Structure formats: C-alpha cells, structure tokens
Amino acid sequence: GSVELTSGEMGFVGTDPQYRRRGLVRRLADRHADLLREGDFDLTHIQGIGGFYDRFGYAYSVPLIPDLRVSLAIATAAAKDARPLVFRRAQVDDAAILTAMYREAVAPVALRSCRSEQEWCYLLDGPAIGEAETWLFEDEASAPVGYFRIHKTGFGDGLIVSEVALPGAWCAGSVLGRLAEIAAAWERPYIKL
Questions:
Q1: Could you give the CA distance from residue 164 to residue 161 in angstroms, rounded to a whole number?
Q2: How far apart are CA 126 and CA 160, in angstroms?
Q3: What distance in Å separates the CA atoms of residue 46 and residue 44, rounded to the nearest whole number?
Q4: Residue 153 binned pLDDT confidence (cut-offs 50, 70, 90)
C-alpha cells in the first residue's frame, strides 16, 4: 500500500569458477547482513537462483514474473503502421523526467520500488553504465513520452527489457520496432520482456 520500507539488496553475486566452494558467498552474505544492521534497513531482498539462498536465511515471498518473449518478426510487423517516435539514449540531465515517468508507471503496482533522481543518475552514469541502457522516446513535438531499459547481460539469449514506461498502447508498435532493431544489432534472437 502506502507504507515505504528501506530495503537493501545483495545483487550481482558471482564467483570465478576457480574460486568456488571456498565460502566466499557465505562471507559476502555475512558482510551484507552486517551492513543491513548498521544501516537500519527494514528488510533485505535478493533476486537469486532458486533454492540457493535458502542457506543464508532467504525465502521466497514474491514470485518472479515469467518473461514474455516476442519474436523479432512480430515486433517488426507491429512497427509497420505505428505512429513514429524519436528514440534517444537517456542522459543524466533526463533524471527528473525519468523519475516522474517511473513513479507514474509503477503507481498501480502494490509492491514496487521507489527510485529517486539520484538513483537515476547512478543508473545513467554509474559504474555499471556499460551493462544497461536507458532509452527515451519522444513524440513529434520532441516531448519525452516514455522510456525503456535494456540489459546487455542476463538470463537467456534474448534482448532483456527490464522496464518500459508507455503512455498508452498507441506507442507500443514503435517501441517494439525499435527494440527489434536493437536486438538484431546485438544479435539477439528475440525480445524478452
């Protein structure tokens, strides 16, 4: 509902194969727990390998949404008669508009993350900048109307689309067409929503 909780996530965990089975993840989980206590967090969460993090005290509370796969042919066909949009990579200067778009897009969702302008700046210009891209799309008057975020790595072979903020169905065809173009350029066989 309307209750905001402070949550800390242990994310992007990985161990080089030659160093596995030495207790490194256990030490990381223990350090993460210490940081959570020091920071006075209400809860912690992790989006991890099923069953793996049980040993560190995690249990599933919210199921992950299964992905929807869209073929490049269908996405390209959807763009054929779509209203044209202009696409551009988002910049740090776009943080305020992205914050507003994100807030509006997640408002109907019961369990959601809050994202500040500072967090958008981090996503757009932080250390993981090469891992994801945020694209704004603009109408014929050059006004930003929505955005999407895509990732270069993740589970599966498709183009991973982790977020989309659409002002309405009228722009879905153009967005799918642009995603199909990026997927083809990145040699991805499908779009993963």
A1: 7
A2: 20
A3: 7
A4: confident
For 116-129, the three-class secondary structure string (H helix, E strand, C coil) is: CHHHHHHHHHCCCC
Beta bridge partners of 175: none
Beta bridge partners of 71: 190
3-class state of residue 86 by DSSP: strand
Indicate the average pLDDT of the chain. 89
- pLDDT value of residue 6: 87
Q: pLDDT band for position 65 (50/70/90)? A: low
Sheet holding 190-192, edge to edge: 69-71, 190-192, 159-165, 144-151, 132-138, 86-89
Does residue 64 surpass a pLDDT of 90? no
Contact 150, 133 (CB under 8 A): yes
Q: Across residues 101-122, what is the average pLDDT?
A: 91
Residue 79, phi then psi, degrees to nearest 5: -85, -15
Neighbouring residues of 154: CB distance < 8 A, sequence distance ≥ 6: 160
Burial of 28 (0-12, 13-18, 19+ CB in 10 A): middle
In sequence order, the 6+-apart residues with CB closer than 8 A to the CB of 68 are: 192, 193
